[in-house]
């Protein structure tokens, strides 16, 4: 038999595992067994104040009034993702995003014929009364990723809240209390967008559009852009260091079991400067990567049924392809630049070749994005080790009566401890305690 200290350690490990799983489900708002009857969120009283304080410390955006005032000025198209348009405000302090389409559309894909009208308005609220999945990704990111993701605010116009179904409004209450979800004002706000010359006319809203739901987050430097800038200045070592830091960041996500479903370099940026510089995810894509018989189960909330079930191999392959494409674009830009130093094109080509060599063999499960490496690293550590928000919430649950109940089940008292104890008893004919 193990020592009492070892038994207690095993019990604590199992308690951490259970509570971390409970917090993961809580952050995703999972309803076990399809339960619909739970009307009260029992953990909110303990966990919301922790998240609210952490978000207040992490949120570097200007005050709401200043943000909404900046949105009223002309915004510049910064980029297009699969689900959102990203716009830069005039002073380049933050990014404004809106849901560009009701379905996922690749940025380089031509719009469907006759669909121009669909690009003249945002799609933050869907016909079934739910928020667009990309909006929910940014709402949930702070608790689910902690400091691994760029903190975002989501602004929703008051007049469209009744369009949301009851469950959506109920879910939003918690994030409103945290400070993530805020009011855009009484009605949708018109925005004016300045487009680059090469942007397709069919995707433009030349007269502007009215937005009812927007995401606002600090402007970050994408890692790929930082690599290109380093090559432009002739700092080849810095470019290689950035690519290595990206690989290390990805391994950290795997090691701690963060179910991010796009491990490509495309959605990872640099924030801070000097000693405080770090990598963060600016386009969250949280799903589920779980153990299942015969492999790992992947559930992607951004997919449309029946393609909701994805394979781990497809996640890793698309992540590798996205990173290869981003680095190839850096190489093309450097090759066409008149300002880059003479050695820069060759250095960029070497960077691409080396990444390709390290990541090839994915079809056989090998390489830096292979299943073999993923399985070796995945969930070797706890998520709350790198997610400080979850860590603080987990310790609150350990001290909560719920933690006591789980602990009593994991480490129940033996019969000797239950019955071998003294109980004070007083005799019927006297007031003094009876001898034991």
Structure report:
This protein has 436 residues and is an alpha+beta fold. The chain folds into 2 domains: 59-219, no CATH class; 222-369, no CATH class. It contains 13 helices and 15 strands. The strands form 4 sheets. Strands 5-4-9-3-2-1-7 form a 7-stranded mixed beta sheet, sandwiched between helices. Strands 10-11-12 form a 3-stranded antiparallel beta sheet. Strand 11 and strand 12 form a beta hairpin. Helix 2 packs across helix 5 (166-178). The longest helix has 25 residues, at 4-28. It is globular and about 105 Å long.
The low-confidence parts are 32-39
Rg over alpha carbons: 26 Å
Distance from first to last alpha carbon: 32 Å
Number of strands: 15
In percent, how much strand structure appears in the residues? 5-15%
Sketch the major β-sheet: 7 strands, mixed
Q: SS-based structural class?
A: alpha+beta
By oligomeric state, this entry counts as single chain
Any key phrases for this structure?
single chain; 436 residues; alpha+beta; seven-stranded mixed β-sheet; 41% helix
Explain the layout of strands and helices.
Blueprint: H1 4-28, H2 44-58, H3 64-71, E1 75-80, E2 84-88, E3 94-99, H4 133-145, E4 153-157, H5 166-178, E5 181-185, E6 189-191, E7 193-194, E8 209-211, E9 213-218, E10 221-222, H6 223-232, H7 236-255, E11 268-271, E12 278-281, E13 288-292, E14 295-299, E15 309-310, H8 312-336, H9 344-359, H10 371-377, H11 388-399, H12 401-410, H13 415-419
Parallel strand pairs: 1-7, 4-5
Antiparallel strand pairs: 1-2, 2-3, 3-9, 4-9, 6-8, 10-11, 11-12, 13-14, 14-15
Summarize the entry for a quick read.
The protein has 436 residues and is an alpha+beta fold.
